[in-house]
C-alpha cells in the first residue's frame, strides 16, 4: 500500500501498522531505466505467490509483478531496493515470453514461461552470489515441469516422469534422497527413491515435503505398495 507501515510509537521505539481488514492494492507500476514511474493499467490478477518478505503476482496478460523486501534480488529488478507497490518484472513483458506459472521461495522466486522454461531469481544460499534478475535454470532446460514447490532454501519439482530436488545444507531430509545418501545438493538431482512413480503434485513446508502420486494402473499401485509407510505415532 505504498508504505512499510513503520511509525514511532514512543521515544526511539518503532512499531508497524497492520491491516485488520482486506484492503485493495490500488496501483501497479513499471519503472524505466532512468527511474521514471509509470502506472500499468488493466491488471487482472490470475495468481499470487508469497515468500517470507515478498509477493509475486501473475496477471491475465502473463505479466509478473513483485513487491516487498528487495534483499538478494528476490524481486527480479536488477537491484536490491524494496518496492512498496507491485512493480513489473520486465523480462516477462514481451510477446511470447510471458509467464505461465509463478512460485515464491523464502528469499527467491521462480517462474515458468510460456515455452515451459524455468526461470529463477534471488538466492537459496546466502553465502553464494545472488541472482538479481530472472535467469533460465540451465539444469532443467527441456524438462516439462508440472509442479514446483519451495521450502526455506530447498526446491522440489515434478517434471516428465521424474521428481527433482535440490537445496544447500542444512537440510532435514526434505529432498528425499534416502538413508545413507547426502542430505543436501547445490545442483538439481533426480529423487531416486521415487523412480518409476509418476508424481502429480509437490508441496514443501519449511523443511519437509509432500507429494501426490498417480495410482491409475495396477503397475503404479504395486510400486506404491513397495514404499515404506510413515507412522507419526512411532516417533
Automatic annotation (TrEMBL):
Cross-referenced InterPro entries: RCC1/BLIP-II (IPR009091), RCC2 (IPR028641), Reg_chr_condens (IPR000408)
Superkingdom assignment: Eukaryota
Pfam families assigned to the protein according to its UniProt record, in alphabetical order: RCC1
PROSITE patterns in the cross-refs: RCC1_2 (PS00626), RCC1_3 (PS50012)
RCC repeats: 62-115, 161-215
Name by which UniProt lists this protein: Protein rcc2
Organism of derivation: Ataeniobius toweri
Lineage, top ranks: Eukaryota, Metazoa, Chordata, Craniata, Vertebrata
Gene symbol of the encoding locus: RCC2_2
Amino acid at each position: 500500500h505504498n508504505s512499510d507501515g513503520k511509525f514511532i510509537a514512543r521515544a526511539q521505539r518503532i512499531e508497524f501498522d497492520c491491516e485488520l481488514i482486506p484492503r485493495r492494492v490500488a496501483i501497479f507500476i513499471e519503472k524505466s531505466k532512468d527511474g521514471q514511474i509509470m502506472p500499468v493499467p488493466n491488471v487482472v490478477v490470475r495468481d499470487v505467490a508469497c515468500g517470507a518478505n515478498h509477493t509475486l503476482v501473475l496477471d491475465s496478460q502473463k505479466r509478473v509483478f513483485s513487491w516487498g523486501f528487495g534483499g538478494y534480488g528476490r524481486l527480479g529488478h536488477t537491484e536490491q531496493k524494496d518496492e512498496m507497490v507491485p512493480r513489473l518484472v520486465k523480462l516477462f513483458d514481451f510477446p511470447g515470453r510471458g509467464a505461465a506459472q509463478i512460485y515464491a521461495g523464502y528469499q527467491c522466486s521462480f517462474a515458468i514461461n510460456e515455452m515451459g522454461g524455468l526461470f529463477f531469481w534471488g538466492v537459496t544460499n546466502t553465502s553464494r552470489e545472488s541472482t538479481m534478475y530472472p535467469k533460465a535454470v540451465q539444469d532443467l532446460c527441456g524438462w516439462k515441469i508440472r509442479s514446483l514447490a519451495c521450502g526455506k532454501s530447498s526446491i522440489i519439482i515434478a517434471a516428465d516422469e521424474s521428481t527433482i530436488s535440490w537445496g544447500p545444507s542444512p537440510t532435514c531430509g526434505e529432498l528425499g534422497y534416502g538413508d545413507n545418501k547426502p542430505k543436501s545438493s547445490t545442483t538439481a538431482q533426480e529423487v531416486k527413491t521415487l523412480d518409476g512413480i509418476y508424481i502429480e503434485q509437490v508441496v514443501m513446508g519449511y523443511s519437509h515435503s509432500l507429494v501426490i502420486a498417480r495410482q491409475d494402473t495396477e503397475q503404479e499401485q504395486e510400486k506404491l505398495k513397495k514404499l515404506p509407510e510413515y507412522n507419526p505415532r512411532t516417533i
